[in-house]
Amino acid sequence: MGKGKGKSGPLARRPDNSAFKQQRLPAWSPMLTANTVLPFFYFMALICMLLGVWLLLTVQSTQEVKMDYTEAGTCDKCFEKRKNASNAAQTCSCTVGFNIKKALKGDVFFYYGLQNFHQNLRRYMDSRDDAQMVGKKRNLKNPSSYCKPFNMDQKGLPIAPCGAVANSIFNDSFTLHYLGSGGPVQVPLLRKGITWYTDKNVKYRNPTTENMTLVQVFNGTARPLYWQKPVYELDLLDSTNNGFINDDLIVWMREAAFPNFKKLYGVLYRANKPFTNGLPAGNYSIDISYNFPVQYFQGRKEVVLTTLTWFGGQNHFLPVAYLVTSCLILLIAVVLTVAWYKFGKNRKSMDE
Amino acid sequence: MTWRSPLALVRDALRGQRAREKDLRNLASNLPYEGLDKAKQPNRYFLGNGIKTTKYTLLLFIPMNLFEQFHRLANIYFVGLAILNFVPVVNAFQPEVALIPICVIMCLAALKDGWEDFRRYQSDNKINNTLCFIYSRKEKQFMERRWKDVRVGDFVKVVYNEIVPADLLLLHTSDPNGVCHIDTSNLDGETNLKQRRAMSGLCVSDPEFEPESFNSVVVCEKPNNNLNHFKCYVEKPDKEKVGAGIQSLLLRGCTVKNTDHAVGFVVYAGHETKSMLNNNGPRYKRSKLERKLNINVIFCVILLLTMCLVGSVGHFLWLQKLPSVPPYLVPNSNGHLDSPSLSGFYMFFTMIILLQILIPISLYVSIELVKIGQIFFITNDIDLYNEETDSRVQCKTLNITEDLGQIEYIFSDKTGTLTENKMVFRRCSIMGTEYPHKENAIRLAVLEPESGEEVIFNQRPRPPHTGWSLHAEDTNSEDTGYDHDNQRKSKVTGNAQSNVAFSSPLETEVIPDRKLLQQISRPDRSDSGSRKTDPYLDFFLGLAICNTVVVSTATAQRQRESVFSSSGQTNNPLDSLSNLVKKSASTRHIFTSWKYKPKRSRTVSEDSVVEEDHFNTPVKIEGSGVTDGLQTCSLQASSQCDDPAATSDNLSYEAESPDEAALVYAAKAYGFILLARTPDSVTVRLPSGEDLVFEVLDTLTFDFNRKRMSILVRHPITKECVLYTKGADYAIMELLSTPYAEHLSGKQKNIAADTQHHLDCYAKEGLRTLCFTKKIVTDKVYESWTVNRQRALAAMDNREELVMDTAVQLETDLSLLGATGIEDRLQESVPETVVALREAGIQVWVLTGDKPETAVNIGYACRLLEEEDLVINMSCKNKLACTSILDCTLEEVRRYSEDPRNVDTRQDIALVIDGHTLTMALSSDLQDRFVDLAKRCRTVLCCRVTPLQKSRVVKVVREKLKVMTLAVGDGANDVNMIQAADIGIGISGQEGMQAVMASDFAISRFKHLKKLLLVHGHWCYTRLANMIIYFFYKNVAYVNLLFWYQFFCGFSANTMIDYWLMIFFNLFFTSVPPIMFGIMDKDVSAEMLLGVPELYRTGQGAGEYTFFTFWVSILDAFYQSLVCFFIPYLVYQDSDIDVFTFGTPLNTISLFTILLHLSIEIKAWTVVHWVVMLASVALYFIVTLAYSAMCVTCNPPSNPYWILQSQMADPMFYLLCTITTVVALLPRYTFHVLRNSIAPSPLVQARRLDRLDVSTRDEWMKEWRSFRGIGQVKRSRLSNPPSPTLGTPADIHPQSPTASDIMGDDLTLNVISENFQRPVHK
């Protein structure tokens, strides 16, 4: 005992009479009985109720338009076409019309949705090389083994971006038209700024070399197997949206948590009429460049137009959950009140 | 070093091996071979004296430590999984990262081991380099060498106060008698000096000892670890064999005392020494909780396999359902896709890796940490600290703390455990006459209340003067006859004040009985003619001689602090005078109180006084009390003046057993002073002042089989060989021959019968009895016997038996001198402790070697037995009788307990059984019936049992009833029992440390058992049980999150939480709170647990840790994980959430749920709790935020960059965390509240009482105890001042067997004598 050496004398080994060592630290010991927790229960019920009502009201003000275009409109022929893998290189366009009954007020977000597409499979998720996407030269020419077998093409050239995630990128594109009274107007969509700020600026970088164009940088790499064009041609018009920092690529690379998911495609640009207040009610049509095959996994494709609240998209579950919980707590509180009335009273008299 | 062929080396090694394995070893002196190379040394095969207790060497540390750690199943499992992770087809995580947890755990363990080993290395080094003296032939003298240079066959000199470096056969000492004293406290903790004697006649060069002249061969047995046993003989060149035993062996580690120097021959060195062989590390036992825990771990394994199977089959089905190959199905690195069935098969293993935390590996580490913490608190408890001996409670076995909370049966030794084992001479019977020593009894009664009462005494008016004067006359008239003796007596009191180890004034002081003093100082005895044959003289000589007490002088004695020192060492006459007044006053106080409450007084029992009236002339009772006051006064006064006999002042006696010391002090009080003892002689001073030197011919030491010891001396005057024997009455009575006093007056014809009667009375009073006998051995008999004896002593094989046989041969035809009654006082608070333990639902059994009467009496005294109890006595001679008794008693007891009328009258049954009957009852065919009977008894007293029987009883009860047992004892005879029980507790008392060394916990007082069990046991158990349950819950709740996710990711063993964060979650964020919970949680306060022992029952049997609680918590974990997963899932359904963004709130939610769940379970929040809980939450956020801020691509392929930050900026995160946590914890919280409100458990009620203020609480506690059926009677008695009534003979008579019951009849059964007549004290 190191402690014992310090002391000497007859009571050298006497333990310290401190509150800690004698386990006499002042302690707060809550009693979980009906009478002590009842106020807490009622309080919780009230809070949940209020939150629930507030959330519900907020959600009511949002609007969402969903449209499955897998086989809708003229897309059925494209759907059939994509069933055959040999037609992958051929383009196919189609148009789908739809109607918005009530105007979508405020910022409108344009999503594409996929059903039954498992971006969350372990192998699939792992099949990417973040180091390559962050612009590391070494990884550009020598992709991580996680990308296998999508790291090299048949000629042995490194694939950029490598891996199954990038390879399977969603490659439909959409043009939305408002069929208003003054003829069809293309709905302006902001196709940039749809990613997380950190993704765009930190996680994804093009490999940089002084005085070299993107093409030169990516020289010696192959495009992913399913891609029609190489990564440096994703957006030829805008160099800040090309290569690895292409917004669509970045959005796709953020793997969805569930097999049914949607991903942001664009945000309504509200500078010009008639879209300054959002999307007006009326008929719309979407021109789709139909490339992405879904029949291999019995998938569906859809377009979602929605407005958001301060706590996210249109989500009825959360307010309902709050309301139900509130009722549940209230019910328990009532039961406890009864219990307290029946049993607690007895104890009171016993105490006296 | 000369070169030797490898073959020779191998041969040599083999030969060495054989030499070490042989039963007998021949050792020769090294001296003739000094300087020769190793191959020529005669003792080269035996180990050197260097020791190495380290487990590892520097080079081999890593492999050996790894090997050591892989002995643990848990580690193997962990490593197995890590290896599995390296297999590409099944890996779930990045293999390198998966190694981290196991590496962390194993590194921590290795660091701990390494540090411990380094400490051992340092201490080894220190010991090995200690200096000692070895004889060198070249130098012709003893040279200073290091301990590690000592070899077998060397001659080593040890000087005063030095530690013996190896096991030495003592050849020479500075003492002319060849005696050497050693202190073995390093070895066994016994503080008394032990005598060792040199083997004589081995060196021709006597008296000057010359090692070079030693030319004999020492033949000794193979090394063993028995400290009290050694067999060896020395073969001289002329083939004469001289035997030697433990009495000639100096053990390594002992200290030489009282002797200038000693020279010994090294027989065992280094690791072969007895002390090293005894040096085992802490023992590991497996606790009951841990055994149960392992079963639950197996359940977890089954659960894990089920879940993996679900995953595997799910993956297979999911693959089957796919119409073709979707783009998200990634082929393996070869570009091929495995078939669904193969993938499913692989998935099974991947799932095991994924869900591995379900098997709580960290639980084992956590439990170890928790137990260390619990032990820290136990050893630091100031209530378990004994100031007298400056000792704390010691935890020898580190991992059974929680078993303390589950004890159902306690097996207790009596002597030294329930009692002080501080023997006080109380009464004696000589030649059939009883001498009650009332004054002594009163003195003890005065001394007993040491504190507190003094204040009261001071306030009392001085005793009336009349009493004093009256008395003074009285005593004066009597005193004249033995003035001389009185002076000596005064010396006794004076001497008592020097504080010698192991003797307080209480034990050393004896006030002689007046009548007996008169008897021995009768004028007609002073003529030397009758002196030789006077039985009184013989009796006291026997008292003084027949023992192994070592006389040490004041210079050599070791001082020991004691409570009495403060008052004892004052030399101020005024002080002692005032003390006197107090004493006499208190005497009176006790006396008066005694008049009103005859049965209250513990030490002076009315009945005993009445009884002695049968044998003796009645003594005025009222007078005697005050007499003592005066006598003490006169004694004290005379002690102030100079005493001529200064030599006897400095004597102090060191005895191996306290009985012996008590008897020697008693003899001293009567003037028979043991002055000196050497192996060959004993010097006794007679009351007349003359010193007699007896030549000791032989000592037949005590053993448990004979239950007696003898000493054979030659009387200096008559030159007769006299054998004095003392021993237990039943061991002596059957050896008696015709009454010793034939030639004396005829009235003492029936001494044996009278003495037996007295003995029985003593026993009923709870005194320990010893009989003293004498036998005159004729020279012829002695001659022939001594030849046998020598032969037996020199024998190598079964020497003990032979030696014992020779002892039995001589111990026949003894003539009885008398008997003594020694009181072994109950330890303080024993009755309270026993009552508390009983209320706690623990059955207390007493296993003692004493007589049934003594045991029953102690039983009443310490409230094992109550007056209204049924006491069943079982004592029978043969098995048939035993069977029928058992059957019939069992029937009776069954009928009794099933009788509806007896439901509310809480009549308890006690069983008293003696050793002989016990042997039969424990035989395999009667065992079940006995156990069945014992189960129905509240207490069982087993009397006259051997150590082996003790352990047998424990084993039978433990195995048959499947209960948790605890054995508590203090002596070597309890070691078996202590080892047989689930928990062995050693009491570090007067009888050395053997029990303590064998025990799991060592305490210094029996009363400490109360707090140790009721408070620490309860706490440790509930803490650990709750902690373990919580741990299972935590793992299941967390892992199930991953499992539920599998239903959404095609059973691909994907995780939505970054693997690093998962590791951190288990290693840092949620590991400390449960450990703290396991160490510090306090469900009920210590005061409450002590006040209401019934609360202890919650831990007994199944306790809180049952399958039910386990499964409830597992189900709760399932529910909580479902909530924690599906509420976020439903919220994020169909959104653009990504995998890790989904996982982060999940991780946060489960952190909150898991910690808040613990918060519901925590019963008392101290500062530590708050700090740990808040720190855990803070740590989670800080670490996760830092990790996700810094890790851009550090952990491919997962990528948690900036996720928590973005989540925390989203109000949804908080809304989600709140609702999920509330819903997850609502059921448990509600359940707790409802249970506490509607049907509160005793523990909850106790907690509620804890919140009240102290006075109300105490009132409630009383109310509770009475309400819970402890019984109004008992409660009312408790409220009285503690009065451990020594049951008086009249009281026990109806239940206890009389002597004829035990001895005479073949079959005795006092069938359930209900003792309603016994008056209940008011």
Automatic annotation (TrEMBL), chain A:
GO biological process: phospholipid translocation
Name of protein: Cell cycle control protein
UniProt keyword annotations, A-Z: Membrane, Transmembrane, Transmembrane helix
Compartment list: Membrane
Xref: Pfam families: CDC50
Species name: Cottoperca gobio (Frogmouth)
Keyword flag Transmembrane: yes
Family: Belongs to the CDC50/LEM3 family.
Segments passing through the bilayer: 37-57, 320-341
GO CC annotation: endoplasmic reticulum; Golgi apparatus; plasma membrane
TrEMBL record, chain B:
Membrane topology: Multi-pass membrane protein
Chief subcellular location: membrane
Top-rank lineage group of the source organism: Eukaryota
Gene3D superfamilies named among the record's database cross-references: Calcium-transporting ATPase, cytoplasmic domain N, Calcium-transporting ATPase, cytoplasmic transduction domain A, Calcium-transporting ATPase, transmembrane domain, HAD superfamily/HAD-like
Catalytic activity, EC: 7.6.2.1
Transmembrane region(s): 73-91, 97-115, 293-318, 345-367, 1028-1047, 1059-1080, 1105-1131, 1137-1158, 1170-1192, 1212-1231
GO MF, one example: magnesium ion binding
NCBIfam families reported in the protein's UniProt record: ATPase-Plipid, ATPase_P-type
Protein's recorded name: Phospholipid-transporting ATPase
